[in-house]
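Ticket #313: bound-state structure for zinc ion.
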Amino acid sequence: MLVPGRRLLTTLLQAPKRPFQPSRNMRLVQFQAPHLAGPRLGLESGSGGGVIDLNAFDPTLPQTMVQFLEQGETSLSAARRALKAQLPVLPRSEVTFLAPVTRPDKVICVGLNYVDHCKEQNVSVPKEPIIFSKFSSSIVGPYDEIVLPPESQEVDWEVELAAVIGKKGKRIQATDAMAHVAGFTVAHDVSARDWQVRRNGRQWLLGKTFDTFCPLGPAMVTTDSVADPHNLRICCRVNGEVVQDSNTNQMVFKTEELIAWVSRFVTLYPGDVILTGTPPGVGMFRKPPVFLKKGDEVQCEIEELGVIVNKVV
Ligand code: ZN
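RESOLUTION: The complex was predicted; output attached.
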């Protein structure tokens, strides 16, 4: 599954950066297996590893991430016990990974939140966060297909760091914000540029929220397992070619500031997903512009979190 490819290697040689590090920390997943009932909660045993069935370990645990997060510390401590125990690991080939969060109350997104992405467009860095959203129905799993809608000719890629809310809150202080974040995952903010910037009265919503336009995963890595979410290499490859390669240290508004800002307007609930913006290298600003076509394969990868691979159909 991990196919960094020769192109990435070439890029690394040209501009040395830290290689992606595997993680052995708490990586929560939602998965299905043919011999097990319903979607289930699990632990990915290291990036790219097999899955430990949390519902088999503790049948009282809920089977969805949103419910798991709603239970707070009770369910988290059970997951911690499972992580320490010697439990059977289902091989990756025997399970289907779902998005680590499905049907959250909200998917919140941020525009123009990377300094280097603003430079690429020759626009100044925003003075306050630019907030928009996707419907939760756009969420698909880490290896699911992105379906090109016949309504758009300009479907583009955007790799993003996503924060998952673990604790309900309104008017959260930035200093307290990380206590509300359950973990982080990789997101792909697939964007139909024609609908985002020209149609629909220039409201971004429709262009951002076609079905399958929000691949997430493979795991939600808990906040205490991520050394520094604002210093992670972030990369997107299309058909193996590196198209975006930056670091989350380029974010204009960090996760804490975004949570403080958004929670002034709306209550954040466990499971809510916040996509924190994309670095430069999207197809729209290439000369000439490049858009996704049938048969393409997009890989979005973030250091410590993992890689999602989605074929375009
Ligand atoms: Zn975006």
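RESOLUTION NOTES: The chain is about 20% helix and 25% strand.
TICKET STATUS: resolved
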